[in-house]
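Here we describe the complex-level prediction in full. Unlike the single-chain runs in Section 2.1, the two entities below were treated as one system.
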Amino acid sequence: MGVILEVKNLTKKYSGLTAVNDFSFEIHRGEFVGLIGPNGAGKTTIFNLVSGLEKPNSGSIRFDGRDITGMKSYKVVNLGIARTFQLVRSFKYMTLLDNISVSCLSPRGRKLAKEYGIDESASSILAAVGLIDKARIPPVVLPHGDLRKLQIGKALGTNPQLLLLDEPVSGLSHEEQKGITDLIKKLHDDGVTVFMTGHVLRELMHLVPRVIAMHQGKYITEGPPEEVANNKIVLEAYLGKGSEELA
Amino acid sequence: MKNLLEMRKIYHYYEKARALEEINLTIEEGVLDAVIGPNGAGKSTLLRVISGLEEPDRGKIEFLGERIDDLKAYKIAKKGIAHCPERRRLFYDMTVMENIEMGSYMLKDKKKFKYLLTFIFELFPRLKERRKQRAGTLSGGEQQMLAIARAIIANPKLLLLDEPSLGLAPKIKDKIFDAIDLIKKEGTTTLLVEQDAVLAMSVGETIHLLEEGKIEMRGTKEELEKEPRIKKVYLGI
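The structure predicted for the assembly as a whole is:
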């Protein structure tokens, strides 16, 4: 299948610190890929660059054959990339249905809603993320796991081709984690290309068929999780220098 | 040896998320023990529960035979537990010397202060050179040195060190860990929390492996080195 996202030699510097350093990778249409690396590796910065929240110093990003390097985030969304954030943000005092409706009002969302209307479209997304019975409730009263589902729902409202999920299960209980991972699996089965980060690897490494590993802004390796987990540099990044002497 | 700290069946939750589960941990006087584990395992919470920054939801903590789990942080500090927090948390607008003095707030013995200050400056000559400089202008490594200095000037019976290697270059990490080794030799009981497993195992006597709030295993460096479980806990596979 064709390449949907192509990142080449991407570099992002903040005064003195190179957060992303000459980073290249590709994601194919329909793939399910994880981006791993210890805290501070630069995972979120990659997401910020791809989703147009920040501009790279150099390098290029192509999405669906089009150059989107440095493009504003609303334009990126309109091309079909949606993302969630590590920290949950919602329209706190609007109902869940209205929260989703807002993103259904985006150009791609409208297209999707054309036939049945925004309300119906938002409802079907709420049902897909498992929150339909709470459609009339505002997010302020929801537990954290539900808020995470809502974030994914808001991203889906824009009818994305590529979904970027930044730490979708961090800070959740076991059952909540399972609810989210089941949801992500289902979305992928439905045809959405999913690219997600995680610094807690227990879930992620069993979820995705391919991971890309990074450390201190640099690309280390990529491949099936078992292979990447045994890479010497990956081990060193997680466990410290000299980790090859551990069993 | 006498037990300095005893944690019995400690549980802690952040709302519904369980951060610590049935933690049993004993620290003998004079040792340097380490807690390792990946991000989010509960390492910082473990220290915060000891120093009173969080009150455990269940369980018992005794320090020198006295219960401390229901005490406020400042009272626990008074009893002789100093917490060197993650990401340093210095007084950035104050000078190096003022930061050290803040740490000695409760130390009334002037001689002891002088002795400890000499020890600190031997440990970290850079801090002596920069004692009049504002803490915010120090490098990351120097800030970490200062955070440790601010904790040990309190003359603690128990020193809690949270991720002293965080964000530091390998060379600077080694320097900090040489100092931690010297602090131990000088006799301060220390509980070190550290993501860098190799580094922590190089100095710790008993090493506790924490995964999702539970102590999965513990042992000496030699015992743990043979354990494939560590990699599994860190890499999830």
